[in-house]
Structure formats: structure tokens, C-alpha cells
Design a protein that fits this description.
Layout: E1 2-5, H1 8-30, H2 36-60, H3 68-89, H4 91-118, H5 122-144, H6 146-175, E2 177-180, H7 183-190
Helix pairs in contact: 1-2, 1-6, 2-3, 2-4, 3-4, 4-5, 4-6, 5-6
Length: 191
């Protein structure tokens, strides 16, 4: 195993993006009455910044030079930037798309939960089926009332995602080291 030290500029970039994500998350949570359009624009800017960070990691990080994660970081970064541009270009369509996508995702999760609960153990059946039914009810409400209920749910979920991603980026930037290589190849050479 080899520990690769992350460059200082990349650590600062990760910590900075993490702090920005947490601040934006807190702003959206503290002021839920903020216009959704503004929140979506802020989220698209954060998505743009995260895309740039992923491309920088894939391009310049010594940890990712010899692995497929380099190309996945660059590809996912480019995809994040493309989605950011689309959200900026069509913010209202993006809002409705995300609301309906979330509603249908909850519907499928609820159906899967009910199916899993039917075949599960006796002690967990009622709980899993209950969560599945609750997911279906919430999804039906979100799909039926995308503006009144779906918008609020979307803002809360997105701000929580920003908070979690911000904490993750700060942690990664603070630690700044990654383990690479394998001990097996070194062991084979010594015997």
C-alpha cells in the first residue's frame, strides 16, 4: 500500500467548495420562503463548481492517473457542468422535471418496499410494507400537487444533499491523503 498526498491547491479547492455548499444549504434551510428560482440558480452554480472540482481531480490528482476513476471523475464532472448549464437555461422546466422525477422515484421505492415486505421476515414485514405505503402516498401527493408540496420537498431534499456533500468535501480536503496500490504485488515480488 502506498499513501499518496493530495496537492495543497486541491485540498483548498475541496474545502472551499465544501464550505460554499454548507453555507448555501443553510441559507436554503433557514429561509425556505426564498424564491425557488433563486434556489435552483444557486444549486446550478454549485453543480457547476462541483463539476469543475471533479474534472480537476480527474485531471491533476496523482491518485487517479492510472485508474479508470480518472476518466469517471472527468466524465461525471463534464456531466455535472452540462446539467448546470441546462438548469440555468431552463430553470422552470428543471424544477418541474426534478419534482416529477422525485415523485416517481418515491413511487417505485414504495412499490419495491411493499414487494420486499411481503417476502420478508415476520418481524420486519409490517414496518417495510408501512414505509412502502407511506412512500407511495407521498409520491402521489407530490405528483398531484407539484407546486404546493413538491417544491417545498425539493428545496429541503436539495439543501440536505448540499449539506452532506459539503461535509464530505471538507472531510476529504482536510484529510488530504488516499491509499493506492496493492500489497499483493509487492508480496509476490518478495517471495
Amino acid at each position: 500500500m502506498q499513501i499518496v498526498k493530495t496537492p495543497a491547491w486541491l485540498k483548498v479547492l475541496q474545502i472551499g467548495i465544501g464550505v460554499i455548499s454548507i453555507i448555501l444549504s443553510g441559507y436554503v434551510l433557514v429561509y425556505p420562503g426564498v424564491a425557488l428560482l433563486t434556489a435552483v440558480l444557486i444549486l446550478s452554480i454549485v453543480l457547476l463548481i462541483v463539476g469543475i472540482e471533479r474534472i480537476a481531480i480527474g485531471t491533476f490528482s496523482s491518485y487517479h492517473r492510472n485508474s479508470s476513476s480518472r476518466f469517471s471523475n472527468i466524465g461525471l464532472g463534464a456531466l455535472a457542468i452540462a446539467f448546470s448549464v441546462l438548469v440555468l437555461a431552463y430553470p422552470l422546466f428543471s424544477i418541474l422535471f426534478l419534482i416529477y422525477l422525485g415523485g416517481f422515484a418515491l413511487l417505485f421505492v414504495g412499490i419495491a418496499g411493499i414487494i420486499q415486505g411481503i417476502g420478508g421476515h415476520l418481524w420486519s414485514r409490517a414496518f417495510i410494507i408501512g414505509v412502502g405505503i407511506l412512500s407511495i402516498i407521498i409520491s402521489a401527493l407530490v405528483i398531484a400537487h407539484p407546486i404546493s408540496l413538491g417544491v417545498r420537498l425539493l428545496v429541503v431534499i436539495m439543501s440536505l444533499v448540499l449539506l452532506i456533500n459539503g461535509i464530505q468535501m471538507i472531510t476529504i480536503g482536510t484529510i488530504g491523503r488516499r491509499i493506492s496500490g496493492t500489497a499483493i504485488s509487492k508480496m509476490n515480488n518478495t517471495y
